[in-house]
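Good morning,

Attaching, inline, the backbone tokens for the sequence recovery test we're adding to the shared suite. The designed sequence is right after.
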């Protein structure tokens, strides 16, 4: 999900951003979360922490009110910056109004939009244009976080007809589908899924008739399209993609 951090004094800006981002949620398969989504009666601090743990992207709406908030500056922001270092959380921040961000850890991070002028100095049309650009960057950051990281050490690796392969160099951040294609064919063979948090998958490279030395191209994708078992039958094209890894080629022994 995409986590939006803001001061309640700037709630109108959060509402405007969520309105602009609505198509990402409705059609793009991207969830955007703010504390406006906390249900009545919930333990709000735990809910925010759990949401940050699941976030792929954090968007910070920075103003003097944001920088004055004790909760944001002492709890939320340090948590976000730590997650950026430890697990690659993408952080996008924008300046709503003039403020002393240079005196905070934000000075070390490039803003997602120009800080001069800040958003509150823009006309309504320019403001909407800026929010659209921010939403596009939110989407791209989400997809970059989600994109499977292929295990480059597989390049040229000799593999057996059936082998448990470490396909990814780092754990999947959502379900990943694995496909292989022999050198002499345009058809892809679905190997199955790698679940969130895992890296490996049992893969099949040909059959008893396959000649040793045959190369197989491997690719990992994320998709919203259902991918059912193919029963060993090939697919002429990959399913509709969300993201796709770099390819890698292995060689059948």
């Amino acid at each position: 999900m995409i986590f939006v951090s803001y001061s309640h004094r700037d709630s109108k800006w959060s509402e405007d951003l969520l309105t602009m981002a609505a198509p990402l949620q409705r059609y793009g398969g991207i969830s955007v979360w703010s504390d406006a989504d906390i249900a009545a009666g919930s333990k709000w601090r735990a809910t925010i922490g759990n949401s940050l743990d699941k976030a792929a992207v954090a968007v910070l709406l920075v103003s003097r009110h944001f920088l004055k908030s004790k909760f944001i500056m002492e709890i939320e922001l340090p948590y976000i910056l730590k997650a950026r270092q430890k697990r690659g959380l993408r952080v996008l921040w924008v300046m709503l109004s003039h403020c002393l961000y240079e005196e905070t850890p934000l000075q070390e991070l490039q803003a997602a939009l120009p800080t001069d002028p800040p958003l509150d100095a823009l006309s309504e049309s320019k403001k909407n244009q800026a929010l659209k650009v921010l939403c596009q960057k939110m989407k791209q950051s989400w997809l970059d976080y989600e994109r499977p990281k292929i295990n480059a050490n597989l390049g040229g690796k000799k593999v057996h007809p059936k082998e448990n392969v470490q396909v990814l160099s780092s754990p999947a951040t959502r379900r990943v589908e694995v496909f292989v294609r022999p050198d002499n064919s345009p058809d892809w063979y679905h190997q199955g899924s790698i679940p969130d948090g895992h890296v490996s998958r049992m893969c099949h490279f040909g059959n008893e008739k396959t000649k040793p030395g045959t190369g197989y191209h491997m690719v990992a994708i994320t998709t919203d399209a259902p991918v059912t078992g193919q029963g060993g039958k090939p697919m002429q094209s990959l399913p509709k993609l969300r993201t796709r890894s770099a390819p890698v080629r292995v060689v059948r022994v």
